[in-house]
Design goal:
With 266 residues, the protein is of the alpha/beta class. It folds into two domains: 120 residues, Ubiquitin-like (UB roll) (Roll), CATH 3.10.20.30; 131 residues, Alpha-helical ferredoxin (Fumarate Reductase Iron-sulfur Protein, Chain B, domain 2, Orthogonal Bundle), CATH 1.10.1060. The chain is 28% helix and 15% strand. It contains eight helices and eight strands. The strands form two sheets. A six-stranded mixed beta sheet has the order 1-3-2-6-4-5, with helices on one face. Strands 7-8 form a two-stranded antiparallel sheet. A hairpin with a 2-residue loop joins strand 4 and strand 5. Helix 2 packs parallel to helix 5 and helix 5 packs across helix 8. The chain is elongated and about 75 Å long. It starts with 12 loop residues before the first strand and ends with a helix.
Length: 266
C-alpha cells in the first residue's frame, strides 16, 4: 500500500475560491459553473480541503475532464489529476464526481445539477489531490494471473479457434478497462480490501475461467476458494451501478459462486 493514506477522521476544510476571467473582454464571464475540487498533499502535512473554481462554460468543453483541464491550464496549475485517452478507454481519469465513481472524460457537465463536486476514488490512499494510489488494486489484478494458460502445442500459422457460442461467453468481460470505479464503490471492498479481491479482479479472473481456450479453469477456481477472496461479496450491486463501460461485475461474481457450488455437488 502507499506510504501516505488519508486518515478516516480527517477534516476536509473549505479552501480558496478561484474566479473565472474573460481575458478577451476583460470582464467576468456570465455563464459559469462552480467546480468544487478536493485538494490534499500528504507531503505538506496539512489537512485536506476543497477549492472552488468558477469556470467559463462558454469557453469550455462539455465533459468534466474538459473543465478540470481548463482549471489546471488557466486557474491553478498545481491541481493534480490523471488523464490520457479522453475517450473512455484507458480508465485513467476515474474519480468520484457528483457522488458517484465514473470517468471524468465521459461525464457530461450538463448532466450535473448545481455545483460540480469532484473527489478522488473513495477509500484509497491519496497521492495528491485527485490522484489515488492503485498499487494494491493492480497487485490484486495480477494475483488472478490474467493471461491464457494453455500448454497444448499449436502450429505457428494457426490460431486457437473458438466457436461463435464460446466467443460470446467473453462478452461483458474483456471490455474491462481497470479504472477501479467498481471496486472502490463496493463497501465490502472498503472493509476487506486486504483480503477481498473486489469486483474488478474477480471479473478478470472469470474472463479466463469462461474462455474455452484456457486450460487452467479448475486451478483458477481453486485459488478463489477462500472465505475472503470471493465470498466477501454481498451483492450490494454498487459495482454494476458504477461501471462506466456498462459491465455487470455482480452477475459475474454470482457465476463464479455458481461454479463453486456445482463443483462441490459432483
Amino acid at each position: 500500500m502507499a506510504e501516505f493514506k488519508l486518515p478516516v477522521n480527517s477534516i476536509v476544510k473549505i479552501g480558496k475560491t478561484f474566479s473565472a476571467t474573460n481575458n478577451n473582454a476583460g470582464e467576468k464571464p456570465k455563464n459559469t459553473r462552480k467546480f468544487i475540487v478536493y485538494r490534499y498533499d500528504p507531503a505538506s502535512g496539512e489537512n485536506p480541503r476543497t477549492d472552488t473554481f468558477e469556470v467559463d462554460m462558454d469557453n469550455c468543453g462539455p465533459m468534466v475532464l474538459d473543465g478540470l483541464l481548463k482549471i489546471k491550464d488557466e486557474l491553478d496549475s498545481s491541481v493534480a489529476l490523471r488523464r490520457s485517452c479522453r475517450e473512455g478507454i484507458c480508465g485513467s481519469c476515474a474519480m468520484n464526481i457528483d457522488g458517484g465513481n465514473t470517468l471524468a472524460c465521459t461525464k457530461a457537465i450538463a448532466d450535473i445539477e448545481g455545483d460540480i463536486k469532484i473527489y478522488p476514488l473513495p477509500h484509497q490512499p491519496v497521492i495528491k489531490d485527485l490522484v489515488s494510489d492503485l498499487t494494491h488494486f493492480y497487485e490484486q489484478y495480477a494475483s488472478v494471473e490474467p493471461w491464457m494458460k494453455n500448454d497444448a502445442e499449436v502450429e505457428p500459422d494457426k490460431e486457437r479457434l473458438q466457436t461463435v457460442e464460446e466467443r460470446e461467453k467473453l462478452d461483458g468481460l474483456y471490455e474491462c478497462i481497470l479504472c477501479a470505479c467498481c471496486s472502490t464503490s463496493c463497501p465490502s471492498y472498503w472493509w476487506n480490501s486486504d483480503k477481498y479481491l473486489g469486483p474488478a479482479a474477480l471479473l478478470n479472473s472469470y474472463r479466463w475461467i469462461a474462455d474455452s481456450r484456457d486450460q487452467a479453469s479448475e486451478a483458477r477456481l481453486d485459488d478463489l476458494e477462500d472465505p475472503f477472496k470471493l465470498y466477501r461479496c454481498h451483492t450490494i450491486m454498487n459495482c454494476t451501478e458504477a461501471c462506466p463501460k456498462g459491465l455487470n461485475p455482480a452477475k459475474v461474481i454470482a457465476k463464479i459462486k455458481s461454479k463453486m457450488i456445482k463443483r462441490k455437488m459432483k
